[in-house]
Amino acid sequence: MDNSQHPIGIFDSGIGGTSIWKEINTLLPNENTVYLSDSKNAPYGQKSKDQIINLSIKNTEYLLNKNCKLIVVACNTATTNAIKYLRENYNVPFIGIEPAIKPASLKTKTNTIGILATKGTLNSELFEKTSSSIDSKINIIEQIGEGLVELIENGRIYSEEMTILLKKYLHPMIQKNVDCLVLGCTHYPYLIPQIREIVGTKINIIDSGEAVAIQTKNVLESEHLINNNDQKRGENLFYINKDKTVLENILSDFESITTIKQQAF
Length: 265
Ligand code: DGL
Hints:
alpha/beta; Asp/Glu/hydantoin_racemase; binds D-glutamic acid; 10 strands; globular; about 40% helix; glutamate racemase activity; Rossmann fold; single chain; four-stranded parallel beta sheet
């Protein structure tokens, strides 16, 4: 059966994974996509591994019912806790996202890198495995970004509370001479302008969005799933199980949005 016209499924605990959707849509504009924003259950970062796996199963099954040919887990917390289970139990390719501490460890000159991520990501076995594979001379400063996802989900990206939290998390890293800051949560690229103001220009801000889009393209090609219909731009469908206003705002500059539906799932 030729599945190539079927959509790419993408899910996140909320609206943050749209930072990955944007990269995929830019690289693969002809692909149809279905995005699931599980905002009703955000944040995932404070939940147990079992809860994260169960929510990831629910999202995967919803996307498979929409005939998705490949699923992008556009959430570090869900990837680091649930992708192994998903790959073992569903017969569809999965692409995940993990904090880019390896590339950061190759780039740092001060041998000190910072990572901002959720508790669920930093406490996961997968993250532990990746960080223990990094050269031991590299000092990794881990910081839980508590409260950041909630503010973004509530449309308060540019707010005083956000500035206070970011300063609290980033100032200690600056003092410890971090020269690479890894954004380990797909919500955080929306904070780059404020982060840049706090850390200045000397710190590299590293996120994995573009790498995920490239990996998605590579897997589609190797699995013969790429949509070769270059006559027409893909259709992009978004589902959210909470008020859709914040999602509409975050996507407002994208012309290729087809539909945003508020729906229970
Ligand atoms: N976007 C999710 C991530 O990349 C946010 C996690 C959460 O909901 O706490 O980790």
